[in-house]
Amino acid sequence: GPNGALEATHPLALAPVTGPASNVDGFVRQFLRNLNYERGVPLSASSPNDQYFAFAMTVRDYLMARWLEDLRRQRVTQSKSVCYLSAEYLLGRQLDNNLLASGLTDIATEAMAQCGIDIEELRAQEVEPGLGNGGLGRLAACFIDSLATMSVPNIGYGIRYEYGIFRQTFVDGQQVEQPDAWLELGSPWEFPHPEFAQTISFGGHTETYDDEGVTRSRWVPSWNVRAVPYNYMVPGYLNGRVNTLRLWSAQATNSFDLRVFNSGDYEEAVRAQTYAENISKVLYPEDSTPQGKELRLQQQYFFVAASIHDFLDHMVADDFGLENLADRVIFQLNDTHPVIAVPELMRVLVDEKKLEWDAAWAITQKCFAYTCHTLLPEALEVWSVELLGRLLPRHLEIIYRINEEFLLEVRERFGDDEIRLRDMSIIGEFPERSVRMAYLATVAGAKVNGVAELHSQLLRDKVLPDFNEFFPGKFTNVTNGITPRRFIRLANPELSELITSALGTGWLTDLERLRGLESYAEDPDFRAAFREVKAANKRVLSDVLRARDGFEVSDGHMLDVMVKRLHEYKRQMLKLLHIVTVYEGIVSGRVDAASVQPRTFIFGAKAAPGYAMAKRIIHLINAVGSVVNADERVQGRLKVLFPQNYNVTLAERLIPAADLSEQISLAGKEASGTGNMKFALNGALTIGTDDGANVEIRQLVGDDNFFLFGMAEPEVEALWARGYKPAEFYQHDESLRRAMDLIASGAFSGGDRSVFEPVVSNLLYDDRFMVLADYASYIEAQAKVDAAHADEDAWTRSAILNVARCGFFSSDRSMRDYIDRIWHTPPAF
Ligand code: GPW
């Protein structure tokens, strides 16, 4: 074997040694061994962090044999693997998930009790890895959970950011960002493998050379970094399967140092090291708004180049035959962030493996598929030719050639239609020459998918219609999903128990079985039990918010929750106008407080640090909250809570306690949404627009169990076409006027009218997302919510039907769709 180790067929080398005994005694022994021999402390002197580490390591030890076996099998069988390329994985805490997946929860709980340790205290030690911004990153985490649970061979590739999404704090109601030092105390879940590091190059120039009579191109880069892989276990739910998440960390290379060392400048050498390590230093906190920053392109190329080389070097057998690469792997591009992988694979095949261009292109076009997650034009990534050419000169040449040949084909099909050619070119000319990454992905990908029916349709018809015409059959839909293991079983154990008591086990991996709950909606005992679950979840949330934020959650309130990134298109302002309207109605004496259903409004939202309007809206929500919560006249009726630093861990507590789910984006703007699915599956009713996956939720749960409001996408289009004048809505709607005037009056800013003036005038004179146009409809729908909530039994029936009818939104189903429509991977081993 390598390095003189035993051959793989030797009995001692064949299989990994088995893990600890699967009983309480086995767990205790392994835990103490880890505490003593890995942490180097006796139980009596161990800190909670020591205990957490030893505990996590023990869980790992149970999974390890399966993990090694699955890695081995992936190499031996050479059956097609899915490589998910994603710049973000918003994993959430790992401990409970890994306990659940390995079936160890009860044993581990008892084992800790025997050691005199409170397992809750251990749970609290874990810092969640926030290696993503929002929906896109969380989706990636749900997908890899489902693939492992479905025994599909998969490697998730991404970046091991040293700092994840910032920790949000409020100072005088305004967002202040703190670095997320999630690795400060180390992480027990990661396995560094410096021996499998890849060298990733940047800069320099290209040249042609004579290769035995053939003129070839090559890249002569000017600097490089080391990409060190860190492996994470991705255990399937109770199926003994463990897939791999491989995240890359940047380190300076020796040559990198040497070059500068030779100049004799020590300080410069250290600076150079810092420069290299900056690449994986921090997650960009912009969600859906690419900034075109050089470091960001470095991150993208860094992780996809490392991933492609890693897979080719270690996962593809030497005799596999590159021409068959698409039988071995599909690289799924999670939005455009990893699209620079396309020219990288071309460069490897043409420059390094010396394939003909056409052969290389044929392979490449089969190895990639592209998922688009947006419709916002400003969210579509473009890289200036100047920057791309400076950082990756050979890749730019390759992109030019791909574009040239593509436009030739377009010309053949459509003739010299210069407008169409300009519109379809991968290279845009205005405002500067740049590479349109979504176009590159569409041309290169075997398939292109949107993330909900409406989104995929708009993608075909509005965003990329020329491409849809040119590539018939390339466009498809896969509606997003969420993992029921984390978002039902772990987040809502009481509901899970209730479901199991009705349906038996099996539903967690076959979520359509929730249909069986429909008949229980008519059962008064079941409804009472369901209500009790919701009440218990509210008590849990109340404890969490008291400890975390010092909030008091009032009993008997409807919990009305809007949690998602702060973005104008998501329309937190619409929610706020509703709150101000109700508040103003009561304090002006026009509405009797006693007639208002008691409600607590909960917001959770981070704003991109450079997004001034989003930050102002956060400030305004907090300001309204302070005034409303302090006003005696609405005591016991209205409350506004905005816990800081909304993250996966908090979502797991908020969602199961919610009564009402706010999904109120302007129709045609939210690609899918996934929070909407999580709420419905936890028995909240949705108030929502006809947007993203809301459309499919409403179709499934039925109009009677969903509060629809607002314009549909064609009406939005029509209003733009007619000419949208928000001020007219303001003038013609007294209730809207009162709410806006109250904000403008300085009532929420100590009389200072200037603080929120930009928010108000933005709505009055611009209102890109038509908040004012949908206001009346929203207020009307909220009145229906109040009326419906007054009938407890009817509300509960609807809530149960939401759970029963949303099994479709399991990410297991999403994965089945990807397999059937895009990946065509064989049945799992
Ligand atoms: F702009 N999404 C996200 F499309 O969370 F790239 N971040 C992003 O940068 C983008 C999309 C991008 C979200 C969508 O906004 C949401 O509608 C969708 O449910 C989610 O991605 C998962 O598909």
From TrEMBL:
PROSITE patterns attached to this UniProt entry: PHOSPHORYLASE
Domain of life according to the entry: Bacteria
The keyword Hydrolase is assigned to this record: no
TM segment ranges: none
Top-level EC class: transferase
Function: Allosteric enzyme that catalyzes the rate-limiting step in glycogen catabolism, the phosphorolytic cleavage of glycogen to produce glucose-1-phosphate, and plays a central role in maintaining cellular and organismal glucose homeostasis.
Family: Belongs to the glycogen phosphorylase family.
Protein's name in the database: Alpha-1,4 glucan phosphorylase
Taxon lineage: Bacteria, Bacillati, Actinomycetota, Actinomycetes, Micrococcales
